[in-house]
Amino acid sequence: MGKSPVTVRNEKLANTVVAALKKRFFGAHYCETKEEAVELALSLIPEGSVVGWGGSVTVEQTGLKDRIIEKGFKVIDRDRAKSPEERMEMQRQVLLADTFLMGANAISEDGQLFNIDSTGNRVAALAFGPKQVIVMAGINKIVRSVKEAELRAQTIAGPINASRLEPKTPCLITGVCSECQAQSTLCVQFLRTRICKPEGRIQVILIGEELGF
Questions:
Q1: Are 212 and 103 a contacting pair, CB within 8 Å?
Q2: Given this structure, which CATH class describes domain 5-207?
Q3: Would the pTM of this model clear 0.90, i.e. be above it?
């Protein structure tokens, strides 16, 4: 039995974006399923590496974190912290990890990443620090342009994450971004990554499934 029209379209779209990402010096790959993506991600992490991660529903959904732990990598897992102070210290430590795992709020068809962050630990690690960053992204994260990438991050990912994390923000009540200036806002740091420098430091794995927000 042949591939479904949706699978065929996803593959073609992903291949187009992979080519665009490579032109911008990212490492870029496409996997049809999250299981294949996990195996690929594991193959990119050298033995003996220290691995950390930022908050990512996509990484959680793939099961990659569990496999990392099973394989005996040394991990910096902020969710094991016993206090807010210890959690913050772990977030600082992860900036010196060998590999950092994260998702993406949006990826434009011309190969640019867009992310919004609250504390900034995730976008900080993407920009500088860890020797390698692996970005896991479902096909639903691909949008037409950088403008649409920012719009998606702010109006879709933002309100959904507010429902997940329950900060005291207007979008938690309305489901609509109002560009609030509340101290509890999740939309603090906006980062567009248009080029990977040094070349290949950021590895983007596109997955032919809808994952994350």
A1: yes
A2: alpha beta
A3: yes
